[in-house]
């Protein structure tokens, strides 16, 4: 900016490299629609409180709407000389409507203005992300509904543990997404507070009506302390934290899909629309989408850390450091939105579960060993004793290259006389899963109930 922008105190223009270094217009232009909306509310408040005349207010609002149209038509492209979106708008407004444009900034500072813009932006983006999460959940639920009776090995320590309903496995991600949705909902309370009218830091000498401008902008309340209002970024950090957890969840599912798509697991096949080939190895089909989601997770964590560190040493109130919040928040928003969308598409049309292969997998392991121990326990053998006995069974079966279901009744009875013919039914994978009918378990009845609960959550909007 030249000495035009600043007060007459300034005599020489900024060094061009410093102007570039200082400017945020390159990225905060993304806030323009919110800046215009915030300015309109401010102008209306100035009219209501008789700080400016109704005619002046009308001219200002009309001018701001003209800028909005220009921007939407791609005709408003302020350069670095504007420094930031707030100056760019004020300058254009004054070009359009003359000196009245210079009245807009009465009883306001860029400090409360930028805080207002950022909150309006984030409020809208959070709603958009919540909408995307709903679609992602709907997709998980649809696949789950098709696969209640499809079994998949369940793991702990990435070792086969107990078989699961595939629906149960997918619904775990549904529930994580539900917490993510709730977290976003909760933090809106703290996003939706108006700093407008806090001024530069101390409030203003004009008889403004902060409640009125807040109401026009749909804020639930106003900051009670002007210093806090202009320098609080808790809401941005909370958002980055909620975003980080969304990414944790997407990244865990990504990791599973990547494993499942490997030759070693072969639980899913990837469709061409969501995978890529290799430039050298013609046989390859790579799970780029989940890999990118997993990779981008680190960026979002980085932004959370960046924001925390940016804030920790700031004396009250506004400091230019705060300009650094924007790229962090914008990139967090864009990354999360891109990843939720990509994962939703991937699940919708990019992965197919290989049901026969899954059936074979759960049929050919020892993940029903717990059920043998449970079988003995129901026949009165203390569980720990049963557990030890079955450990021995697994050991000898492994040595003999036999699965548990391949043991003869004589072999079972040699281990413990309580074994009867019904042991075979008790350890069949469908039965093993179906029997885990405790609340929240993988038993089919439970999974049907979980599906009903999930549908109810989605039905509530
Ligand atoms: N571009 C600035 C930001 O992003 C706007 C607020 C500037 N305020 C100031 N007093 N320098 O934070």
Quick synopsis:
With 461 residues, the protein is mainly α. It has helices at 16-22, 25-28, 32-48, 54-72, 85-97, 110-146, 166-191, 210-216, 226-231, 234-260, 288-312, 325-350, 355-363, 369-378, 383-400, 409-415, 423-426, 429-434, 444-459; strands spanning 151-156, 159-165, 193-194, 221-222, 268-270, 351-353.
What does this structure look like?
The protein has 19 helices and six strands. The model has no long low-confidence stretch (mean pLDDT 96). It is mainly alpha-helical. The chain has helices at 16-22, 25-28, 32-48, 54-72, 85-97, 110-146, 166-191, 210-216, 226-231, 234-260, 288-312, 325-350, 355-363, 369-378, 383-400, 409-415, 423-426, 429-434, 444-459, and strands spanning 151-156, 159-165, 193-194, 221-222, 268-270, 351-353. It is 62% helix and 5% strand. Bound molecules: arginine.
Named CATH architecture of the largest domain: Up-down Bundle
Contiguous runs where pLDDT drops below 50 for at least 5 residues = none
What is the average per-residue confidence, as pLDDT, rounded to a whole number? 96
Principal-axis shape equals elongated
Q: Strand-residue fraction?
A: under 5%
How many helices? The count is 19
Computed over alpha carbons, the radius of gyration is 31 Å
Task: Give, in order, the helices and strands.
Answer: HHHHHHEEHEHEHHEHHEHHHHHHH
Residue share in helix:
55-70%
Are any ligands bound, and if so which? arginine
Class by alpha and beta content:
mainly alpha
Instruction: Give the spatial strand order of the biggest sheet.
Output: 1-2
The major sheet is characterized as: 2 strands, antiparallel
From the N-terminal CA to the C-terminal CA, the straight-line distance is 48 Å
Q: Number of DSSP strands?
A: 6
CATH fold field value of the largest domain: Fumarase C, Chain A, domain 2
CATH class category label of the largest domain = Mainly Alpha
CATH superfamily of the largest domain: Fumarase/aspartase (Central domain)
The total tally of domains equals 3
């Amino acid at each position: 900016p030249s000495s035009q922008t600043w007060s007459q105190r300034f005599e020489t223009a900024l060094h061009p490299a410093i102007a570039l270094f200082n400017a945020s217009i390159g990225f905060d232009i993304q806030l323009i629609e919110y800046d215009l909306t915030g300015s309109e509310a401010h102008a209306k408040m100035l009219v209501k409180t008789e700080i400016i005349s109704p005619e002046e207010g009308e001219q200002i609002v009309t001018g701001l709407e003209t800028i909005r149209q220009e921007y939407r038509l791609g005709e408003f492209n302020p350069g670095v000389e504007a420094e930031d979106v707030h100056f760019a708008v004020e300058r254009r407004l004054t070009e359009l409507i003359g000196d009245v444009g210079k009245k807009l900034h009465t009883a306001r500072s860029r400090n409360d203005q930028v805080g207002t813009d950022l909150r309006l932006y984030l409020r809208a983006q959070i709603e958009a992300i919540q909408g995307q999460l709903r679609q992602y959940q709907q997709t998980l639920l649809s696949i789950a509904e098709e696969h209640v009776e499809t079994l998949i090995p369940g793991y702990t320590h990435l070792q086969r543990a107990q078989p699961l309903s595939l629906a149960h496995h997918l619904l775990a991600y549904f529930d994580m997404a539900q917490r993510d949705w709730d977290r976003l909902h909760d933090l809106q309370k703290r996003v939706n507070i108006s700093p407008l009218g806090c001024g530069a830091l101390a409030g203003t000498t004009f008889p403004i009506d902060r409640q009125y401008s807040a109401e026009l902008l749909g804020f639930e309340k106003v900051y009670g302390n002007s210093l806090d209002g202009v320098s609080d970024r808790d809401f941005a950090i909370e958002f980055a934290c909620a975003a980080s957890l969304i990414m944790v969840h997407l990244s865990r599912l990504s990791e599973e899909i990547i494993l499942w798509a490997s030759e070693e697991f072969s639980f899913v096949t990837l469709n061409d629309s969501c995978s890529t080939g290799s430039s050298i190895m013609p046989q390859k089909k790579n799970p780029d989408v989940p890999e990118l989601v997993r990779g981008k997770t680190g960026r979002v964590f980085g932004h959370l850390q960046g924001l925390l560190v940016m804030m920790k040493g700031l004396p009250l109130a506004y400091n230019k450091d705060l300009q650094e919040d924007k790229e962090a928040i914008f990139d967090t928003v864009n990354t999360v939105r891109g990843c939720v969308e990509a994962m939703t598409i991937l699940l919708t049309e990019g992965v197919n579960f290989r049901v026969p292969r899954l059936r074979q997998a759960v049929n050919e392991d020892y993940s029903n060993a717990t059920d043998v121990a449970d079988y003995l326990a129901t026949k009165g053998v203390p569980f720990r004793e049963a557990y030890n006995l079955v450990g021995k069974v697994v050991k000898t079966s492994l040595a003999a290259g036999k699965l548990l279901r391949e043991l003869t009744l004589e072999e079972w009875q040699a281990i413990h006389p309580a074994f009867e013919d019904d042991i075979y039914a008790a350890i069949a994978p469908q039965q093993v899963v179906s029997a885990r009918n405790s609340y929240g378990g993988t038993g089919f009845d439970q999974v049907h109930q979980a599906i009903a609960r999930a549908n109810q959550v989605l039905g509530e909007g």
